[in-house]
Task: inverse folding
């Protein structure tokens, strides 16, 4: 086990400049110690866990105390300063013992886990997509920062942690880039912001964090929990009552004339999504928030036809301008968010139902948060997992948005209607359609194409016809379309694309 720790530490140090060696040694060993704790300590009472931990590190300390090579001394130094209280004492004793006899200890080894937090700043994107907490360690020989990025669009989780240059260079980079606000905070305030976000990350199911997050989190937690000041938790985010949300909708409608009939309903859904599923408030204007709402949340929470969904882009654009004016956001940031509506509009077109049974044009059904998303329900019924991610390289923004919606829809619909074996073929045909024949997309509604692909697969594999369980009418009914429409659209595919038999 110790040889594995030594090898990991050596590889991590070899990958960085010498100036970062004390920081990387601290991070590498903190990560290894954390992984060992997850793997080796039993899931029992705290006193049982502590006993095993003490025994393990006492044995490690005995072995390392007997060695004389410089690499093991670096490991022992790092362990003595990063391992938790239960196992730290024997490691510290072994470290002191070796320090008396160890020859030519490099200066950087003495600095491992010995840096003092001198200041902290918070840099926040003006669109509210996220913020970076920058911890400044103004050491004379090894100055550096630890930068923690918190993603507001994912519920304020920590998405990235990395070691950066000295704080003056970080500030210069932020100022050159623009579109951020920067403020200085007390170290205890910065620690509170980060620890709360780390708690959100732990509660997140499979958080989409970076590789650096995995590497530096142990270092980060160790340093924050050893601050002389107690962390100050940020204030509780205020909740917006239903009445306050309705009032905001009324203010928008009064200030914006000539809106579609469904404007109040659409804006209320936007507000609910912004408040309940992201962090930053109701008036946040962001291109990323537009993508989340149009391409991910709304199509999975609302069942409606094209009459309703056609009104959404108009209303969302008007709301973005209204909110941008209210918050005095720069015009370029507002325009960027408004342009994103056009990019992600195909997601709504693909989600629109054709002649929904039992409802009138323009009506919608909301799948509230107590139910599973529509796609999750389909996958559970059909035994499907998550769809593959389409390759978007070489596509413009519009084509990428179309493919990111069309291919998973075709995959899902084929798997649910025909069986899981046909989902990959449907995905491939959708990808071929967007890449090889993008002009063909304009000849039918985007929502028709996944249905036509399923229709085509069913006939090519002889799943429809005499003696089969499916008839053309029954299949068309399952796909919420008509045989004529599906037959015509599928013919466009076979006439344009060369499809494998």
Result:
């Amino acid at each position: 086990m110790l040889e594995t720790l030594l090898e990991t530490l050596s590889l991590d140090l070899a990958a960085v400049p010498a100036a970062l060696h004390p920081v990387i040694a601290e991070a590498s060993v903190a990560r290894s110690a954390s992984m060992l704790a997850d793997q080796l300590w039993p899931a029992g009472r705290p006193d049982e866990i502590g006993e095993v931990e003490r025994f393990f590190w006492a044995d490690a300390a005995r072995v390392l105390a007997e060695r004389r090579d410089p690499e093991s001394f670096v490991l022992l130094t790092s362990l003595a300063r990063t391992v938790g209280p239960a196992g730290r004492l024997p490691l510290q004793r072994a470290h002191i013992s070796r320090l008396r006899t160890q020859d030519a200890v490099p200066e950087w080894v003495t600095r491992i886990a010995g840096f003092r937090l001198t200041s902290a700043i918070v840099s926040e994107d003006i669109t509210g997509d996220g913020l970076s907490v920058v911890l400044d360690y103004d050491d004379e020989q090894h100055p550096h920062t630890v930068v923690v990025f918190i993603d507001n669009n994912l519920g304020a989780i920590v998405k990235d942690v990395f070691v950066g240059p000295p704080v003056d260079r970080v500030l210069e980079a932020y100022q050159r880039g623009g579109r951020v606000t920067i403020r200085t905070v007390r170290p205890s305030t910065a620690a509170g912001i980060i620890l709360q976000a780390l708690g959100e990350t732990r509660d997140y199911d499979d958080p989409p964090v970076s590789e650096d997050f995995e590497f530096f989190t142990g270092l980060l937690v160790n340093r924050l929990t050893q601050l002389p000041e107690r962390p100050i938790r940020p204030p509780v985010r205020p909740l917006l009552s239903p009445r306050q949300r309705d009032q905001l909708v009324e203010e928008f409608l009064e200030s914006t004339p000539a809106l579609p009939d469904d404007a109040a309903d659409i804006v209320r859904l936007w507000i609910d999504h912004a408040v309940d599923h992201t962090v930053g408030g109701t008036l946040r204007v962001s291109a990323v928030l537009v993508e989340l709402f149009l391409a991910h949340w709304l199509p999975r929470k609302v069942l409606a036809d094209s009459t309703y969904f056609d009104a959404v882009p108009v209303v969302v654009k008007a709301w973005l301008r209204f909110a941008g004016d209210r918050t005095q956001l720069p015009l370029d940031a507002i325009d960027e968010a408004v342009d994103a509506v056009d990019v992600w509009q195909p997601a709504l077109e693909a989600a629109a139902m054709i002649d929904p049974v039992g409802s009138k044009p323009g009506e919608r059904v909301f799948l509230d948060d107590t139910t599973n998303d529509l796609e999750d329900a389909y996958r559970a019924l059909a035994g499907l997992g998550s769809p593959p991610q389409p390759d978007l390289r070489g596509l413009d923004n519009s084509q990428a948005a179309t493919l990111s919606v069309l291919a998973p829809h075709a995959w899902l619909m084929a798997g649910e209607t025909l069986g899981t074996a046909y989902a990959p073929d449907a995905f491939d045909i959708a990808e071929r359609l967007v890449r090889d024949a993008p002009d063909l997309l304009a000849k039918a509604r985007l929502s028709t194409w996944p249905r036509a692909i399923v229709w085509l697969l069913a006939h090519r594999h002889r799943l429809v016809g005499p003696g089969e369980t499916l008839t053309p009418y029954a299949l068309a009914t399952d796909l919420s379309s008509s045989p004529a429409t599906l037959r015509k659209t599928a013919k466009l595919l076979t006439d344009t694309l060369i499809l494998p038999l």
Q: What stands out?
A: The longest helix spans residues 46-66.
